[in-house]
TrEMBL record:
GO CC field: cell envelope
Residue span(s) of domain Tetrahaem cytochrome: 79-165
Predominant place of localization: other
Keywords recorded for this protein, A-Z: Electron transport, Heme, Iron, Membrane, Metal-binding, Signal, Transmembrane, Transmembrane helix, Transport
Membrane-spanning parts: 271-289
Cofactor: heme c
InterPro entries: Multihaem_cyt_sf, Multiheme_Cytochr_ET, Tetrahaem_cytochrome
UniProt-recorded name of the protein: Doubled CXXCH domain-containing protein
Cell location: Cell envelope
Matches recorded under Pfam families: Cytochrom_c3_2
CDD domains: Cytochrom_C3
Organism: Candidatus Kentrum sp. FW
Keyword Metal-binding appears in the UniProt entry: yes
Length: 299
């Protein structure tokens, strides 16, 4: 069994080397290649080629067909074929790196919304990054992009952790170590998307815009009251919590999705603290009186 597995691995490696060498051999003599055969390479589970693009990011060239068929582009836009977006230059093998059709090639009607997103993003810490150049598809991978309400929590977190867990993690610390100041760090990392703390709502902006303005770590939410209070920011992030996000407004918040502290009454909190303090003083006072009377009896 082990020998067979090693043989398969060796064959895969040899195949990868062959494809790489073939690229240089055929650099001047390209072969006609039907675009319907893209999956022979790009959907082969045994070969996952990737490269660092001009934008500084790692690009995985393997396409997961199952995930692709769940994407917004596949379901709603009807982009079933590779050539729907990859229009020209792919009918030869090996093909050169080509720029696929841009967002506005299809989304001209959403241009105003995209421009608002870009204006918000230009205030993001990502906008000033020197090592990389951010574009829409840096986070919203075109082959797997889905509406926020349809995305799982792992997908949302993955847009951040795919970089900050590894290549762009200058501290070398795990996420839990970086957030160890939080008394419930693991719970929040497991149940809440990164943007819930690393962005800030703006009353003049829609959620789809201000959620693109990623804050520096020193500006991220650190106070419990930011979320766990009446009128806290959490109402803007309900679709970013848990595996089955809910789309609720403030009137539904208390009835269907209770957040600790979201319905707190300050004077009742203070009354409770006074009662607790009075009880503590009473217990300690009673104990001291008992100790004093016991000593007096012995004398």
């Amino acid at each position: 069994m082990i020998r067979n597995e090693m043989s398969v691995q060796i064959l895969v490696c040899l195949a990868a080397i062959f494809v790489t060498l073939a690229g240089s051999v055929w650099a001047t003599e390209t072969k006609t290649w039907p675009v319907t055969k893209c999956g022979v390479c790009h959907q082969n589970p045994g070969m996952r080629p990737g490269y660092i693009g001009k934008d500084g990011f790692y690009h995985d060239l393997h396409i997961d067909q199952q995930r692709f068929e769940q994407s917004t582009h596949y379901i709603m836009a009807g982009k079933y074929r590779c050539v729907d977006c990859h229009e020209t230059g792919y009918d030869v093998f090996p093909h050169k790196e080509q720029e696929p059709m841009g967002c506005f090639g299809c989304h001209e009607d959403l241009k105003e919304k995209f421009l608002a997103i870009r204006a918000s993003f230009q205030q993001s810490i990502h906008y000033d990054a020197e090592e990389v150049e951010f574009q829409c598809n840096t986070c919203h991978t075109v082959h797997y992009a889905r509406k926020s309400r349809r995305m799982t929590l792992e997908e949302k977190k993955g847009m951040c952790t795919k970089c900050h867990d590894d290549r762009y993690n200058p501290t070398g610390l795990t996420l839990i170590r970086q957030h160890q100041w939080h008394p419930q760090a693991q719970l929040h990392l497991d149940k809440v998307a990164c943007i819930a703390c690393h962005t800030q709502p703006d009353q003049w902006e829609e959620p789809f815009t201000f959620k693109h303005r990623i804050l520096a770590k020193d500006e991220a939410s650190r106070l419990c009251d930011d979320c766990h209070s009446v009128g806290g920011k959490l109402a803007d992030y309900l679709i970013d919590i848990g595996e089955n996000p809910l789309q609720l407004d403030n009137t539904q918040l208390a009835g269907k999705f209770y957040v600790s502290g979201a319905t707190r009454i300050p004077w009742l909190d203070n009354l409770g603290l006074l009662l607790l303090l009075a009880t503590t003083i009473g217990v300690l006072g009673h104990g001291l009186v008992r100790m004093g009377t016991t000593l007096l009896r012995r004398k």
